[in-house]
Amino acid sequence: MNRKLADTIVLDFTVHLPTTGAVSDADALPTVEVFEDETDTSLSGATVTKRVGKTGNYRVAVVATTGNGFEVGKSYNVVVTVVAGTVTAKAVIGSFFIDSKRLADLNDLAAGSAMTLTPAYDAAKVAAPESGGNVAAIKTKTDNLPSDPASNTQVNTRLATSGYAAPDNSGISAIKTKTDNLPADPAVEGNIQAHVADALAAYDPPTKAELEAAVSPLALEAGIEAHVLAVLNSYDPPTRAEATADKTAILAAVTALNDITVGEFLSGDLSDNLSFPANSLADLVRKLFWVVCNRLVITDASGAFTAYKTDGVTPAAAGTITDNGATTARSKPTWP
Known about the structure:
By secondary structure, the protein is α+β, with helices and mostly antiparallel strands. Helix content is 32%, strand content 19%.
């Protein structure tokens, strides 16, 4: 059984004659020893008393105090020594454990009895609830919440009109009209080759007679017409054979673009730091790459834009986007 420190534990035992087993008083008052766990030295605080008017009935009272050597968390055995009919006998009449708490402590409480806990708890339970500090900070936040947060009307009424900027839907539509004309894969050199080949295949240089015939019906003033005719007279267009030879050479150069890898494109013949003849095929392809693939900064208010070279720092081209879907012509980029 579990008992609490400072309890008095009372145990009963009876005495019988060893020859007949009949109940009998002991030859002398029995003695008692109390042993703690594996300790063989008996503790003090235990006494034996004969029950009044009862033959062979005795009780042992054990006062389990720290002064008598008892400790919390220890087990104890109570042993009595009896001499009856000149025969000495011993027996363990009881065992108990000293616990820090007992179920009986709860049973001793009457209904409605107050319990005294720690001083800190007693102070906390009578303290006034917090009225400032964290409570005030929380209230400041919750005061900003709508009474019906699930209603979108609450949100709409709290959105400042001055802070709302409608999207430029017309401008977006105009940009889409332009981007719809771009190929699905503008980085593929095959697209460039196909367009150049088609243009060269359809090229048929005009003759001087055809140019003069085109100018004559314009009814220009005599001085202007004479100047134009003088220029035309000095014009010597290439023959079809010459144009075909030039076309073959250009197509061969364009075909060679198919052999350029991405790595060669970025670090080889088309690198930022190399120079090419103005408007040469390599120059135009590299400029196209800069605009399509590199950093592009556009100023919303003015439409001014700057395209940067592969390093992302050096400007490659600058201009202004002025095409708004009407008749206004957009400016051409200015190349450094």
